[in-house]
Amino acid sequence: xxxxxxxxxxxxxxxxxxxxxxxxxxxxxxxxxxxxxxxxxxxxxxxxxxxxxxxxxxxxxxxxxxxxxxxxxxxxxxxxxxxxxxxxxxxxxxxxxxxxxxxxxxxxxxxxxxxxxxxxxxxxxxxxxxxxxxxxxxxxxxxxxxxxxxxxxxxxxxxxxxxxxxxxxxxxxxxxxxxxxxxxxxxxxxxxxxxxxxxxxxxxxxxxxxxxxxxxxxxxxxxxxxxxxxxxxxxxxxxxxxxxxxxxxxxxxxxxxxxxxxxxxxxxxxxxxxxxxxxxxxxxxxxxxxxxxxxxxxxxxxxxxxxxxxxxxxxxxxxxxxxxxxxxxxxxxxxxxxxxxxxxxxxxxxxxxxxxxxxxxxxxxxxxxxxxxxxxxxxxxxxxxxxxxxxxxxxxxxxxxxxxxxxxxxxxxxxxxxxxxxxxxxxxxxxxxxxxxxxxxxxxxxxxxxxxxxxxxxxxxxxxxxxxxxxxxxxxxxxxxxxxxxxxxxxxxxxxxxxxxxxxxxxxxxxxxxxxxxxxxxxxxxxxxxxxxxxxxxxxxxxxxxxxxxxxxxxxxxxxxxxxxxxxxxxxxxxxxxxxxxxxxxxxxxxxxxxxxxxxxxxxxxxxxxxxxxxxxxxxxxxxxxxxxxxxxxxxxxxxxxxxxxxxxxxxxxxxxxxxxxxxxxxxxxxxxxxxxxxxxxxxxxxxxxxxxxxxxxxxxxxxxx
Length: 706
Ligand code: ADP
Ligand code: ZN
Prior knowledge:
The chain has about 700 residues and is an alpha/beta fold. It folds into five domains: about 5-200, P-loop containing nucleotide triphosphate hydrolases (Rossmann fold, 3-Layer(aba) Sandwich), CATH 3.40.50.300; about 210-400, P-loop containing nucleotide triphosphate hydrolases (Rossmann fold); about 405-515, Winged helix-like DNA-binding domain superfamily/Winged helix DNA-binding domain (Arc Repressor Mutant, subunit A, Orthogonal Bundle), CATH 1.10.10.10; about 520-600, DNA polymerase, domain 1, CATH 1.10.150; about 610-705, Orthogonal Bundle (Arc Repressor Mutant, subunit A), CATH 1.10.10.1390. The protein is about 50% helix and about 10% strand. It contains 34 helices and 17 strands. The strands form four sheets. The protein has a seven-stranded parallel sheet with strand order 3-4-2-5-6-1-7, with helices on both faces. Strand 5 (about 135-140), helix 8 (about 160-165) and strand 6 (about 175) form a beta-alpha-beta unit. Helix 18 (about 410-420) packs across helix 22, helix 19 (about 430-435) packs across helix 21 (about 465-475) and helix 29 (about 610-620) packs across helix 31 (about 635-645). The chain is globular and about 105 Å long. Bound molecules: adenosine-5'-diphosphate and zinc ion.
């Protein structure tokens, strides 16, 4: 019925290819062998019994210990149009009845049950009926380590499985687990009565592959050509994102005397076939291709796979780069990386209409960026994506061969993880960093996180440094990040060991970013501020029911992000800020910019020389009038100087300028009518307050607020 297992995989689950071991396992399951499968969590165990269940006749009974997981799996299967159901204690007897009816009517291929069901007499009777009416195709025992007292989750009910095995000796069993020591493995085999099982300990590590990331230069084609020339005729694949660049690169390589051919979905079937055959026969050295190429191709001696553009997710990167070195000989997996690529993928994501899909794609893109920018062993990053841990340096990737300095960041890791714990494991990296760095964002206050003991304990590190730590913790498996599009940090066993001071944390440190050298970090800082100003603009726009560009154009926001004006005077100089906008929005934007600079520990601009002179006289005890006379300026100018000095957090003694009782009343008025307009404040206060004193107090209010 199916031309190939791949076709069935695509049909039922929508996946393009199998992960390591899956294919072989499934073939063995189809030939009714007993199996023991050890694969990291997230590695793709379920498929190993689900696909065979669909391809065989009869019902596969899946034993699973957790009711919640059971429901998730069944939901996911039904979502793919697959007949699956569960029977457990959450159902009443009518529901159980009706599900049993469906099973006996042959509508169901996979039945999930809790282990305690297996022993119930009534369930046994039911299974007998199933065996005679539709047949039992297999028993799949998930979390099989629960059968062993040597494991960490011993479930005595699992021991009853053996009775079922004896009752239906011809039905094969598939035992699956993520964690199994030798001892537990033996126990599983024995306790479940597996007969000459085929044991698969799946690893995602491909030791013969070398991984490297090339920062893409502006003349990246020359980099590519140089690399391929150095390969001296070895066969390789170059993956590009678009058909156009495939054609272009293939053409250019040809002109540079490299035998290369294009391959993409825009070509005729016959042209594709012929190009593929010529590559398989080594008539051409290089296949330049979109992702359309490679499915089902099994050329064993591909010596390099280059991704000339950023792949859209790590799963894909793993599969595509994995086409190198199938023969087990050394081969290279090269990724060309530039931040410009991110924008292009972002654009594609932007086009998606389903919000959830968009979120997931964004997270996947971030994982690719983390791989490309990561300082940890690349192999480690890749296998950790599949839940596997790879302890030591691999000595076969660029990061291991040319390691960045390693530093002990245990204390920082403790701060970070304890903040994750205090935020109750419900937030992502960005939020945790905001809390650590004492951000004034609304979201933080909304959750009351400004009251946590970890609030503001991380000012000594920049946001980028915390990000670097977070990334490394995830890559080293020291904290877990959820992958459903809402990246939330969850503590695992190892996180707690760190918190209990039982484990040290070493991370590779990129000196360039930690010393805050201008360049990259400067660019990202502008971007960060730009994002925040855009958020603020959106809030204001929403509150007035107008489109955001009505408030300020993007170009103005960009200038603000670059210039970072921290006083209204400087803000007024930004192109696009007129008198009206200065009056209505200046205040909020300047506060936001100031808060940002403060969080990022950016230098505060110094007052001008003239203002500094005013400050000196003020500190010597002169009154405003005396300073004005001394400097031959008018009183208003001196007052303006002092207001600005206050805003810039300079040591001005406000109590000498405005009586404390008057300050209090002015503040009260500002709280009632807002700080935008001096005139409105004065109207609220009455005639016997001067604009000067209002302005001075407002300056103080502004400073304390940001
Ligand atoms: P496990 O049971 O080993 O923890 P799962 O079976 O839940 O892992 O699989 C983890 C994830 O990998 C799931 O989202 C699953 O859909 C996905 N997956 C499994 N096999 C493949 C494959 N061949 N290609 C792409 N994704 C896969
Ligand atoms: Zn490595």
